[in-house]
Design brief:
Elements (H helix, E strand, L loop, with lengths): L6 H13 L11 H28 L24 H4 L5 E5 L7 E5 L8 E4 L3 E3 L8 E5 L7 E5 L13 E2 L8 E6 L2 E6 L7 E2 L1 E2 L3 H6 L17 E5 L22 E2 L4 E2 L2 E7 L2 E7 L3 H4 L8 E2 L9
Parallel strand pairs: 7-11, 12-17
Antiparallel strand pairs: 1-2, 2-10, 3-9, 4-6, 5-6, 8-9, 12-15, 13-14, 15-16
């Protein structure tokens, strides 16, 4: 690995880039795709908010099937532990997931339209937090001081939505989970083709347990009018320097064993000014190749002996 070891070298690089007119070549290569995906997130949030307002206003006036796909009707006599599977509506099925260690997943037999609300997530409600990946936390006030949990770990006390597994990236994610009126709903985010598994994002804590982080670069970085270059930098005496040691961008992953995330650094240029800022893990939206910007490092190898 090679690293820049002095801040003055970064300043020299900045001066060189400006003198050679290279700054405007520091364009994020996947910029348009990232801006589009961020716009889709905002559109989804707006649709969800409108849906929730409509649900709260009319839930007592209209039948449930006008708001979402209802559970299949249960037979008179059935094995209690089979309840969750038996609630699977017509046109959907439960089958093995190809995701390693995911177990069973929820699938569709037919094409499902975008923004289809698949149903209400069912489970036991309690106040005690558990370690179940089937548990959603519901905050009852804006300060998030009061809360309860909807726990679908028991197949005898939940429905088919418990089988929807966690997505690993934005390309396979096709379901959005959201809270409305202290209930959890699952809604499709795109057109879902036949024989496709439904996958949603489980949330930050469960994601970290799986070694996955979900963070869009546009939520932290200006992709419209700021130029970026990735640096690999370690000060010679980094304990006394304001810039702490940063891993290279390709190590920008969640470390499950140590339960921490390594960060990269970006040098950004906007409106005549340079600024160093942290680069988080955006691979959920960028793919394993990462945030596509130019990379610069020192020419002398780091002595690791």
């Amino acid at each position: 690995m090679v690293l820049m070891d002095e801040y003055r070298k970064i300043e020299m690089l900045r001066k060189h880039m400006k003198e050679k007119g290279l700054i405007h070549k520091l364009t994020v290569q996947n910029r348009e795709a990232l801006i589009k995906s961020y716009q889709e997130i905002r559109e989804l949030t707006t649709y969800q908010e409108n849906y929730c307002n409509t649900y709260k206003t009319n839930r007592l006036l209209k039948p449930a099937e006008e708001f979402y796909i209802p559970n299949a009707k249960l037979p008179v006599n059935f094995n209690g532990n089979g309840r969750a599977r038996l609630t699977t509506p017509s046109g959907f099925f439960i089958a093995k997931s190809p995701i390693p260690s995911a177990g069973y997943g929820a699938w569709t037999k037919t094409r499902v339209r975008k923004y289809t609300v698949l149903g209400e997530y069912e489970g036991e409600e309690h106040k005690i937090e558990g370690n179940s990946p089937y548990s959603w936390v519901i905050y009852e006030d804006k300060k998030k001081e009061k809360r309860h949990f909807i726990d679908a770990s028991s197949p005898a006390k939940s429905n088919w939505l418990r089988y929807i597994n966690c997505a690993r990236n934005v390309w396979e994610e096709n379901v959005y989970s959201f809270v409305c009126d202290n209930l959890v709903f699952y809604m499709t985010t795109k057109e879902v083709e036949p024989n496709t598994e439904f996958l949603t994002w489980y949330g930050r804590n469960d994601g970290l347990m799986l070694g996955i982080t979900k963070l869009h670069p546009a939520s932290e970085l200006d992709l419209n009018s700021t130029f970026y270059i990735r640096l690999s930098y370690m000060p010679q005496d980094f304990k006394k320097n304001n810039l702490k040691y940063h891993q290279n961008w390709f190590s920008n992953k969640h470390d499950i064993k140590e339960n921490k995330i390594q960060y990269g650094i970006l040098d950004s240029y906007h409106d005549g000014a340079w600024k160093i800022q942290r680069e988080n893990n955006y691979t959920y939206y960028t793919g394993e190749d990462g945030f596509s910007v130019p990379f610069v490092c020192e020419h002398q190898p780091l002595d690791v002996k």
